[in-house]
Write a structure and sequence with these properties.
Blueprint (H helix, E strand, L loop, with lengths): L1 H28 L2 H8 L1 E6 L8 E2 L5 E2 L1 H13 L2 E6 L5 H6 L5 E2 L7 H4 L3 E2 L4 E2 L2 E6 L18 E5 L3 H9 L4 E5 L2 H9 L5 E5 H11 L4 E4 L7 E2 L2 E2 L4 H16 L2 H10 L10
Parallel strand pairs: 1-4, 1-5, 9-10, 9-11
Antiparallel strand pairs: 2-3, 6-14, 7-13, 8-11, 8-12
Helix pairs in contact: 7-8
Pfam families: SBP_bac_3
Main location: other
GO molecular function, one term: ligand-gated monoatomic ion channel activity
Amino acid sequence: MKKVCLLLTLVLALGFAFSANASDIDLAKKSTLNSIMKRGELRCGIDSGYMPFEMTDKNGQFIGFEIDLAREMAKAMGVKFVPVNMAFDGIIPALLTDKIDIITAGMTVNSKRNLQINFADPIIIVGQTAIVNKKLEGKIKSYKDLNSPEYTIVSKLGTTGEQAAKRLLPKANYKSFDTETDAALEVLNGKAAAMVYDLPFNAIFMAEQGNGKLFFLEKPFTYEPLGWGIRKGDPDFINFLNNFLRQLKNDGRYDKLYAKWFKSTDWRKKMQ
């Protein structure tokens, strides 16, 4: 009787193992990766106009930091990179209806979106940073050092920069501006100690006008990640994306592209 029970247990175990293995194979076959490889194209949903992530140059070509990252991804797959430009509010619906394979559109990862789609690891953290008047170099080493009544902090009205300045630097004097450029010029002209604002704008302003007049606290001190979005139920694609991003960030390519788009303004010459 014991031998019969043992044999039955082994049969059931093998049956479950075979079933699980078959399910895993079926899931892998349904992965977007398979569709991309068969088609020979990687369809990336973008919203051209988010500087310097995705833009249209004077020749009508798509350029930008995230465009270059996506090109590298297509190259790693051995397929053609196909950017699909659309309005931002239509990108998730386009993904869910299989009009695109992946969202590469400067999308902030948040809980609401994560209920609809999955995200790979962040491509960048574009939280709040600070550009500071050069006169304070050596004295200000962290954004926390700005939390004093002796300093005036500026940002754009109604932005996460304004929220961060008021929340994290409550002791400082705060002044808002209608545009981010006006706020930055206040620091450049020595009328304010620092500007708290999104990493992309501060990096570009620093590269264009900050030399010798400003210094940059470029490590974000709020968490606002941008990530690539894919359809749910696709562990193989998530696995590929995360490993690709780790490789990119550790073999020098990521740093090279970051310097090209955030620490230089040579790309401005290509713009319309």
